[in-house]
Amino acid sequence: MATYKIAVIGDKDSILGFKTIGVDTFPATESEDALKTLKKLVSDEYGVIFITEELASELHSVLDELNKRFLPAVVLIPNSKGTLGIGMDQIKQNVEKAIGADILFRKEG
Amino acid sequence: MEVRVNPTRMELNRLKKRLKMAERGHKLLKDKRDELIRQFLILVRKNKELREEIEKELSGAFAQFLLARAVMPSVILEEALMYPTKKLCLEIHKQNIMSVYAPKFTWVEEESTQGEESSIYPYGFVETTAELDSSIETLSAVLSRLMELAEVEKAVQLLAEEIEKTRRRVNALEYVLIPKLAETLKYISMKLDENERGALTRLMKIKDVVRAKM
Fold this sequence. Notes:
The structure holds two protein chains of two kinds.
Chain A: E1 3-10, H1 12-20, E2 24-27, H2 31-43, E3 46-52, H3 53-56, H4 60-67, E4 73-77, H5 86-99
Parallel strand pairs in A: 1-2, 1-3, 3-4
Chain B: H1 9-71, H2 74-80, E1 86-97, E2 100-111, H3 130-213
Antiparallel strand pairs in B: 1-2
Helix pairs in contact in B: 1-3
């Protein structure tokens, strides 16, 4: 059984804490850096990649592609400025894609 | 929109078989889709709950970390975090949800080789602040659920993809292939009947002619 590693990409303020719990950290502030890192990590042995929403917001097409694959699992996390709601939005999109209508988040109406 | 075919009895039989097959496939795929959606709904609800929880907790941890960063000189902070006490390794198994393969994560912590009983804090408490401690405590507490979120979210994404594909197939069978086949079948049987009637009248006519001559 091959073992995989866990990585986190984000701005330094948000991800330094992850280092202490044993996750590999890759600081990036620009989406281009993040994209480069992400590509490197995908071809490497990373099973789970956490990425801050702020960076992910500009990498939509790449992430969509990755989401169709078995590995790696890319998970959006909020950064130190709080959540942007992109992670939630992704769940919503998945529901719409699968069922055709948004039945989880629909407001009463 | 019927298929252009030779209106023969052989063709009729062949198409009848195809129609039967298409209907069976349609029923099976429909069942598959229904079950996929059921599984999907269970997972997506869990996904939503987990994400809500985790986003709240992580934001809290980050806020505290930011505080710690503000209070402490960044050199000391980075020095404190430079050598983590453990390393996370991930084992990945396949789990099968309705023949959709999703990864299942189990993680092991590899303690680094420090002789003493290792805590989650990789630093001494002299130069660091309490905010850093609590930030890291929250982070390591949230980790197991973070991994669960990764697993669930991946499964949800893969399921959504599969459901979309299955639904497209169901619809193609239901609204395109099956009606088309049915129409062609009707066309062939009409044509055959027509031919038969044609042959019959011809026979009768010939019989009349022959009789008149006798």
